[in-house]
């Protein structure tokens, strides 16, 4: 018994996330083109799909005219088992850029941004909240169109925290799982949120609520006690006539995708090219979305301190920082982008020469094979997040260092720091300490590197994304079975 699939005929999994895993475009002939994306969640669920049919529900990503919606819905369903949620661009902006990414995201990462932004917009303005609520209602309606009794529903992330309660109101016996990919903050930070009760009550209608780490679960439980006055045990929370189970499910990556890529001649060729390019130098690597939670300025300043304090690394160490532009419509991200460019310019100006740029800054996405080649040649990978739900870059680097035994410098504020005990743990706010860690990582002995790498590798290859998805879904299914037995008794 693998814990999935099972006895109830017709039982499916409805996966609900903000975006569908497919990019939708209308071509010149007026036909729809779909491009499936190979995101983390897609590969995590691949294993589940073999044993458990599923339907994916998510926002289409851009406005679709009313007259096109029916045909798009039909084709997406037929070709990809995807069910689109349609939002106007206006609503989507307030919901996604506004409430999701400018209210919940900063707060959940312990960054309470100023109440008024520089364009005079108020942070918790009710229009953002109304758009969030409206979007969650749209999701509920789309799910109702496809729901069949016996289906399990798995809601993903902070975009959809009201959805469990909206579904529970419509279908009393429904089984709902909710997983939060971000941290859940301490109650002293969470209580800032003006609509803190409604958001909590939204999630508490789920049967199973999952977090990456023990700390996030603990914060959630204490918020339920302190803010809603509910009784909570480590197992979960009693809410109305229903028990919301709380569980810890640390996500991982798909190791085979990396193993396969590392074996490709084209990737190996690319790695040799990079090695030749950086011959005689140590390579430190950063791979981040350009988000203020990733601590990119902290990393740059620590590298600057390293070059100042340890001049022996001048001309002998390079920091390759990949920074994918992200959420560029949100003001805070624009600020970060210009700040980061300025820092890179300053450091390169100060320590560079005609032949040497200490920082190679790549402000765009790189393709998967180039990324793997880079991971494989880097002597050190630096993750300096000031908060991060998990951080999969740290896992990906480990996977690509089987032979080289590179050192992972990892912020203690990333969820992955709880499990990756072979990393050099740092507080990214302590720039001197981070600079020292970079120096230690660059100077580590082969034996030390090998021991650390073995530990890391073992963890990353066993705690995979597929394992995460299967654990969550099988626990959800068990809860559904227990409930059904209780009802039938
Ligand atoms: P993210 O904040 O996006 O995810 P992370 O977990 O590090 O952070 O995943 C990033 C992914 O994007 C990685 O697979 C990485 O390879 C890829 N990526 C990053 N930069 C890239 C680039 N320049 N080019 C190509 N690919 C790039 C959120 C939470 C995390 C949590 C995950 C999963 O913020 O904390 O780990 O969800 O739950």
UniProtKB/TrEMBL annotation:
Protein name in the entry: alpha,alpha-trehalose-phosphate synthase (UDP-forming)
GO MF, one annotated term: alpha,alpha-trehalose-phosphate synthase (UDP-forming) activity
Gene: TPS
Keyword Transferase appears in the UniProt entry: yes
Gene Ontology cellular-component annotations: cytosol
Key word Ubl conjugation present: no
GO BP of this protein: trehalose biosynthetic process
Family: In the N-terminal section; belongs to the glycosyltransferase 20 family.
Keywords: Glycosyltransferase, Transferase
Full-length numbering of the shown residues: 118 to 606 of 1153
């Amino acid at each position: 018994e693998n814990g999935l699939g099972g006895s109830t005929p017709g039982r499916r999994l409805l996966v609900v996330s903000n975006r569908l895993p497919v990019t939708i475009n209308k071509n010149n002939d007026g036909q729809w083109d779909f491009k499936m994306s190979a995101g983390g969640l897609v590969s995590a669920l691949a294993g589940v799909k073999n044993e458990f049919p599923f339907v994916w529900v998510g926002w289409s990503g851009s406005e679709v005219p009313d007259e096109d919606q029916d045909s798009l819905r039909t084709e997406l369903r037929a070709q990809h088992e995807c069910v689109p949620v349609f939002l106007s661009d206006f609503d989507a902006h307030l919901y996604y850029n506004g409430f999701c990414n400018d209210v919940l995201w900063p707060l959940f990462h312990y960054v309470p941004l100023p109440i008024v932004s520089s364009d005079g917009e108020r942070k918790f303005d009710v229009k953002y909240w109304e758009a969030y609520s409206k979007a969650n209602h749209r999701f509920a309606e789309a799910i109702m169109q496809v729901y069949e009794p016996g289906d399990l529903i798995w809601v993903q992330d902070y975009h959809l925290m009201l959805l469990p309660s909206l579904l529970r109101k419509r279908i009393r016996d429904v089984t709902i799982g909710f997983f939060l990919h971000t941290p859940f903050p301490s109650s002293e930070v969470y209580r800032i949120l003006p609509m803190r009760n409604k958001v909590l009550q939204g999630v508490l209608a789920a049967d199973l609520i999952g977090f990456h780490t023990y700390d996030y679960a603990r914060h959630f439980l204490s918020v339920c006690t302190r803010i809603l006055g509910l009784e909570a045990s480590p197992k979960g929370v009693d809410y109305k006539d229903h028990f919301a189970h709380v569980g810890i499910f640390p996500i991982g990556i798909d190791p085979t995708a990396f193993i396969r890529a590392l074996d490709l001649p084209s990737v190996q060729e690319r790695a040799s090219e990079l090695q030749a390019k950086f011959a005689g130098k140590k390579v430190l690597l950063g791979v981040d979305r350009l988000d203020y939670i990733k601590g990119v300025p902290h990393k740059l300043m620590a590298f600057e301190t390293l070059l100042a304090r340890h001049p022996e690394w001048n001309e002998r160490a390079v920091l390759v920082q990949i920074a994918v532009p992200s959420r560029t419509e949100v003001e805070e991200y624009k600020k970060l982008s210009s700040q980061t460019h300025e820092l890179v310019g300053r450091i390169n100006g100060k320590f560079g020469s005609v032949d040497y740029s200490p920082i190679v800054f790549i402000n765009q996405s790189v393709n998967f094979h180039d990324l793997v080649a880079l991971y494989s040649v880097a002597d050190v990978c630096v993750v300096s997040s000031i908060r991060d739900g998990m951080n999969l870059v740290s896992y990906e680097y480990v996977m690509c260092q089987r032979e080289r035994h590179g050192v992972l410098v990892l912020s203690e504020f990333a969820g992955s720091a709880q499990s990756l005990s072979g990393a050099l743990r740092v507080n990214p706010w302590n720039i001197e300490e981070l600079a020292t860690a970079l120096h230690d990582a660059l100077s580590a002995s082969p034996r030390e590197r090998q021991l650390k790498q073995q530990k890391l590798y073992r963890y990353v290859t066993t705690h995979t994304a597929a394992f995460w998805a299967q654990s969550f879904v099988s626990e959800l299914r068990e809860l559904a079975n227990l409930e059904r037995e209780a009802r039938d008794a």
